[in-house]
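Friendly challenge for the regulars: who can give me the structure tokens for this chain first? No prize, just bragging rights.
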Amino acid sequence: MNSLLKVDNELNIKVDAFRQRITGEAENLVASFFPNKLLELDHFLKEIHSEINLAVPDPILLSNLHDGLEVQNAKKRKMEDGTGEDKVAGTKVFIMPSGMMKSNAKLVDLIEKVKPEIRTLIEKCNTVKMWVQLLIPRIEDGNNFGVSIQEETVAELRTVEGEAASYLDQISGYYITRAKLVSKIAKYPHVEDYRRTVTEIDEKKYISLKVIVSELRNQYVTLHDMILKNIDKIKKPRSSNAEALY
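First reply, four minutes later:
Bragging rights claimed.
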């Protein structure tokens, strides 16, 4: 019996230490990290140039002999297969003439700077959310106005986490979409629209990254403002029953 009580006491000590650590981290985030980070992101946003030079990929040049053989073979296959003459045959590509078609270096560099900021926001929101959740008292009838403020704060933090995670999905989607377009360029080098579409995709992603940085900054502003305005109710939702906190 005594050994069980000793184990329980040790666990309670560890849990209390965890709660104190989360409380210290969260309060520091709200008071110091959030305002400093929003100023840092505001400066970062101003450094991002409004325009970026994105060149249209060069067309793939094939020799006349190769073209002629491909056309003859294509016509022969169409006659044997009974396919229509209005279809355009793709080019078999084993290697790009200039080697690997690389990603847009400027965009990749910007993406690698933005991604850590997204992950940081998710991690910090999770810490503050845990802190507020630990401050929510047990369920009781009445006197729940402060509790509702805590719940709204948790909901806002959870929303920001979800939006930040969606930014990472957007970045992955950009690479997949661009890769498919580059494959089309390799297969259909004579179609200029495919090459120009790559530039359009890059420009769209560049604008999207600027919007993401702006949203990250705005989310820090909103969270900092919301929590500070309601800090008393968040820390002490029931003024007449503070001992109910656990």
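The chain has six helices and no strands. The radius of gyration is 29 Å. Your move, everyone else.
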